[in-house]
Design a protein that fits this description.
Layout (H helix, E strand, L loop, with lengths): L16 E4 L2 E4 L4 H22 L4 H5 L5 E5 L3 H24 L8 H21 L3 H4 L1 H12 L17 H16 L4 H22 L1 H7 L2 H10 L4 E4 L2 E4 L14 H19 L3 H18 L4 H38 L5 H7 L5 H19 L3 H6 L23 H30 L3 H27 L13 H4 L5
Antiparallel strand pairs: 1-2, 3-5, 4-5
Length: 486
């Protein structure tokens, strides 16, 4: 039986603590002051953007042509990068399957979750979509095609109606694995093998070009994040552009891509809230009593129901966000009396949400990256845990990096605010492209400003909540008694 997702912190005050990987941190000021200040700053930025950004100035500034810096690497250098990425993928799978069973000492676990999932996301946000050039799964296809020509030619055309739904389904499964599976190194290895087989199978069926654009989850997410970078790689050239404006160079071409962007938001928010006391109480105080009255089952039956409820909320979260997003898009349409359909407007503004999703990701996980990345130094010398010392670093103790809680909280506030300001700016520029008059564009963004303020407040509130600490475990019934109504 699976464990309850988190231990309940019954003694912590709701409004007074921020969660930082189990640390209790008392906010120096009341939460409402942070929320009010951030919202006021966001409103001020909206006014400034609306005053200075006009339909005439936007194309000359933010949408200016990028400056060419250099030619993109070709030949041996690019081939070496692809070979290295394939080798690292194979090493990660082998070390998780056959290496140390201790997840904290397993190279594959640390490399995948810390270097690949976290570190590479921040790398592409800074230097552009280098992952597209060295995608290890695409590299495997190239390697197989080198031996068996035409192995990944399209057997059937990729259905346009399918969009990015395969990647969305894989993304949901990935987040479920991260939050609920409590995967061992071997479990992660099996998941990576399964993901590799899915990628090879999709490329075999639909052709590598179509499949890796629509079905390779990591490639799609990293491509979206890389659009914020000041560097881009196009037509074999490395070019310099203004940060973030890559998100305005194209729009979401299918509703499923909008859902992926919204799941980037909702999954991170869910990760932040699903182990907090208020969220746990929703089930055990609001749902459990009527369920127990209706269904005569032992207590452990409802522990399983609790898990199913958590999973359902995760999978439904992007659709909750979609309903809220579409409501504000509809309101925008009414405010400016636009003839554009709600669907078109929703897709046009979809990528302006990426900076918010990115800063949510950073605020929740950057301390994990900083604190855990040093462990790769000794693990690289002994990736299987077999007593090797390949680089002479196996016995170097990786000192834990502990970021002060007050710095974490204030950096999180700053990052969330900056991300929302950037999204306000991008949304205004997009409005200037869509609506003929500057005043119309300005009014169109009032509903979006309200949405951004709501996102800002919700993001800060989630970060301020106390979370469970320590190893997850199934608590005895007595541990939940005082959560139930008297």
């Amino acid at each position: 039986m699976k464990a309850l997702a988190g231990t309940l912190l019954l003694a912590l005050p709701l409004a007074a603590s921020a969660h930082v990987f189990g640390q209790s941190y008392v906010l120096p000021l009341p939460f409402w002051m942070y929320a009010f200040t951030a919202s006021a700053a966001l409103a001020l930025s909206f006014a400034v953007v609306g005053y200075f950004a006009t339909a005439k100035s936007a194309p000359r500034s933010a949408l200016a042509q990028p400056h060419e810096l250099a030619q993109r690497p070709h030949g041996p250098l690019l081939g070496a990068g692809r070979a290295l990425s394939v080798a690292l993928l194979l090493l990660t799978m082998l070390t998780t399957l056959f290496g140390s069973a201790n997840p904290f000492a397993n190279f594959g676990m640390t490399f995948f979750w810390i270097a690949f999932v976290l570190g590479l996301t921040y790398v592409v946000a800074l230097i552009g979509d280098v992952y597209a050039a060295v995608n290890p799964w695409r590299g495997l296809c190239d390697l197989i095609e080198w031996r068996y020509a035409g192995a990944f030619r399209a057997r059937i055309a990729y259905p346009a109606s399918l969009g990015y739904y395969p990647a969305l389904a894989l993304y949901m499964a990935f987040i479920w694995l991260e939050l609920f599976a409590h995967a061992t190194p071997r479990g992660l290895g099996i998941a990576l093998v399964a993901y590799t087989l899915i990628q090879l199978g999709g490329a075999w069926l639909f052709g590598s070009q179509a499949w890796f654009r629509h079905g390779e989850m990591f490639g799609i997410i990293l491509r979206l994040v890389a659009k914020m970078a000041p560097l881009e790689y196009a037509s074999g050239r490395l070019r310099l552009r203004q940060p973030f404006v890559g998100l305005l160079e194209e729009t979401a071409d299918h509703p499923s891509l909008l859902l992926i962007v919204l799941f980037m938001l909702s999954s991170t928010a869910f990760d932040g809230v699903h182990e907090t006391l208020p969220w746990v109480q929703v089930f055990w105080k609001q749902l459990y009593p009527p369920l127990a009255a209706l269904i005569a089952q032992p207590y452990l039956f409802f522990v399983n129901v609790y898990y199913y409820w958590q999973w359902a909320m995760l999978f439904l979260s992007p659709f909750f966000y979609l309903a809220i997003y579409l409501a504000f898009i509809w309101l925008m349409k009414q405010v400016v009396r636009s003839e554009l359909p709600v669907r078109t407007l929703a897709l046009e503004f979809a990528l302006t949400l990426v900076p918010i999703a990115f800063v949510y990701h950073v605020t929740h996980y950057y301390t994990l990256l900083v604190g855990t990345a040093p462990a790769l130094v000794p693990q690289a010398s002994d990736p299987f845990g077999w007593g090797w010392n390949l680089f002479g670093t196996a016995r170097q103790a990786a000192a834990p990096v502990v970021v002060p809680a007050d710095f974490v909280w204030h950096s999180q506030v700053a990052l969330i605010l900056v991300g929302h300001v950037v999204s306000v700016y991008l949304a205004h520029l997009r409005a200037l492209q869509l609506f003929p008059r500057a005043r119309q564009a300005m009014w169109s963004q009032l509903p979006m400003l309200i949405l951004m303020v709501a996102f800002t407040t919700a993001g800060l509130w989630i970060l301020s909540l106390p979370i469970a600490a320590g190893q997850v475990m199934v608590p005895p019934t007595s541990a939940l008694i005082h959560l139930l109504p008297a």
